[in-house]
Here is the input.
Amino acid sequence: MKIKSANFVMSNSDISKCPKGNIPEYAFIGRSNVGKSSLINALTNKKSLAKTSGKPGKTQLINHFKINERWHLVDLPGYGYARVSKTSKKTFQKFITDYFALREQLICAFVLVDSRHDPQKIDLEFMEWLGTNGIPFNIIFTKSDKLTKHTLPTHIENYKLKMLEIWEEMPPYLITSSTNKNGCQELLDCIEEMNIKYGGF
Ligand code: GTP
Ligand code: MG
Here is the structure.
């Protein structure tokens, strides 16, 4: 798939105010600072479509972007940001879980994990929650430019082994970098396939 247009639609913390209609959508979720917003910019070739930061906690709302006038990409706040207070963590969890539980237009969640890190409890638990709630998801390994050709496959294999302790099979996954754009075309093609298969295209 080629990106012809990518436009900001709206920001929300209230799922009932998210865009109406039945255009298919895909959401990026994962720990703060994992690279969700950067990946949206890399995919769309727009440097500042989604707001990014070196400090965790930049994205605070549910942000909808309309792509090629036909589908939505959704940038979500990150989880696991230690400096957020307990109360705002709860509020956060509520609107994020509401989003996943209630958003009928959601075709697939992309759970982003940093390809440099060992499997993290918070990600594994979130994926289990998605699984329990019947929400389809793919894993996206981010920042692959930060690993060497040798260490990257070892890290991915390690992650797979951990997943296989919990899951019958490894969920579909892609390896990406927003810096050198590795994996970006594959991700767009993967979304296009799902648009055709499940999105009524
Ligand atoms: P929150 O909005 O806080 O949840 O974070 P986020 O997941 O949206 O992360 P964001 O895209 O803001 O990126 C966080 C930091 O990681 C920024 O400094 C980015 O430049 C950097 N970053 C993101 N993707 C990549 C990548 O593929 N490679 C490298 N080297 N750095 C990246
Ligand atoms: Mg962000």
In short: The first helix runs from residue 36 to 44. The chain has five helices and seven strands. The beta strands are 6-12, 25-30, 62-67, 71-75, 106-114, 137-142, 173-175. The chain has a mean pLDDT of 94.
